[in-house]
Amino acid sequence: MTSIEKKVFIKKILRLILILLVVSIILVTVTLNFSKRYDLLGWSNALFFSGFLFFAFSWMMIISNANLFIVPLYGIRQFLAGLLGRKPKKDIIEYRDSRRQIPRYIIVTTLCYGIIIMLISLGIYYIF
After folding, report:
1. Which residues contact 87 (CB under 8 A, 6 or more apart)?
2. Taking a C-beta distance cutoff of 8 angstroms, is the pair 87, 23 a contact?
3. pTM of this structure
4. Residue-by-residue pLDDT tens, the chain, 128 positions
5. Which of 29, 47, 62, 99 pairs with 89 at a CA distance of 20 to 30 A?
6. What are phi and psi of 99, to 5 degrees?
């Protein structure tokens, strides 16, 4: 990997972390406002909720990359196409091969971010 490729890759990761941070702030704010609890336990719960959502979302991306949802997704598409009177253009093998894989850096970054947020939440809970 050249230095230019490394810089582009680092920019992609930093952009992803910025997006995750903004979404996390929104989730924490909504959770705090929904629970109407603004003490340390409320903050701990809101942070843990946000971190757990990122953690679960990253596992869903891993499962999606392993093509475990292909059969139900294809079945639903074929059922809906049948209701509309259309014939699917691709069979299940072509559909599986045409799906894009989620890049590994997105999955790893989201997983690590979720774990870090959950650890911060647990730290707040147990220290205070």
Report:
1. 81
2. no
3. 0.84
4. 899 999 999 999 999 999 999 999 999 999 999 999 999 999 999 999 999 999 999 999 999 999 888 888 888 888 988 888 888 788 888 888 888 899 999 999 999 999 999 999 999 999 98
5. 62
6. -70, 140
User: Which of 27, 16, 25, 46 is closest to 111 using CA atoms?
Assistant: 16
End-to-end CA, the chain: 45
Place of tokens 């680092």: 10
The residue with tokens 């997105």 is 106
93: its two tokens: 């093998």
Residue ranges of the domains in the chain? 3-127
